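Justification of resources, computational component.

The compute hours requested in this renewal are based largely on the per-chain cost of generating structure records like the one below. Each record pairs the submitted sequence with a full structure-token output. That output is archived, and it is also reused by downstream analysis tasks.
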Amino acid sequence: MEIRLDTGAQWSMPLTGEAFTHRNQTAPTQDSDATGRWIASDESGWDGEQLLGRGRYLVVASVAIDDAEAAAVVDTLREQAGIRQAPELKFARFKDRANRVAALRLLWGPGGALHERCAVYVVDKEYAVAAKVIDMLLEERAHAMGIDLYAGGLARELARTLALKGQRTAQGENLSALMAAFVALASHRGRRRQQEATDVFFHELDQAWATTDHPGVKEILAALRGTRSQADTLHMPEDEEPLPAMEMLVPSVAQIARLWAARLGPVSVLTDEQTALTDSALGTVHRLVRVAWGPTPSATVAAAPVRSLLRGSSADHPSIQLADLLAGATTAVTRRHAGAPSAAGDDLWPVVVPFIEQSSLLPYDTPEGLAERA
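The structure output for this chain reads:
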């Protein structure tokens, strides 16, 4: 968590309270047989469960490096960039200076200290909402009928159709209103007014179905009109505290842990502090990634040898500072794709795009779709 003042200064304030007492890492990380390889991660663009109406992309960047090695890399970057007084390296200090952007390009490019040691998981939040509509309503109905929508990637294709074709074919803003109504229904706040939120969602669903002329979208919306019973039971009982259904940071951290474990073997993951990453959330992710898990046999992922999943402050961990720089650069690249180019985004996309994982929650066939402007 950061406090920002008008002066532009930033201070890192450690998260406190009962939810943030057990999974803290304050000591420097160091690779070992006990911990495996350390992976540092940081995010950019997180808005909790409110996935619409703000920045379009959530970025979770990661670097396979421990603090012992990261400290030397940070010192070199400071020297190259001429940054000596700032307590931490932040992308904001690099993005508007050509020589500093060049230093990052060298760091991540062939022969650089972090070449082939970076991975980024990117979530297109608009697509994520469409995917959640399919997963939480249509897939649940199909499962009750003995149909596996995950088999053959059908669920993904339905989400892609809804996300990519829906907005272009619905008259007015009906599909936008439908997606916003689903966020209001499925997010944690929807639990407190579930009947009202459900009624609004199905009203917007009827409107979208009536005004959409794309055959594939209309077929999906017609099927969703039959999911009232799934919507009525969307939230678990009040005495249970599941992970927020529309929260994308927590599953993104799980993806980062899995992909590095598959690539390197035993790993420990150090995330930057964030209010969503409570002891309970990190504990749930750690438990799930260590066992084979999935909603159906066709969607099951293998167990991953993740030794630890902890959080720390960038003020204490130079490895997190390196992840922060990558998160900021990837955000510049995603904004470029969304039609907001910048000198840094234009300069860095050739080295950043290869770091974007194929498993990212994007409606493109390959992450390279981000290399082209919308």
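The mean pLDDT is 90. The CA atoms of residues 160 and 363 lie 6 Å apart.
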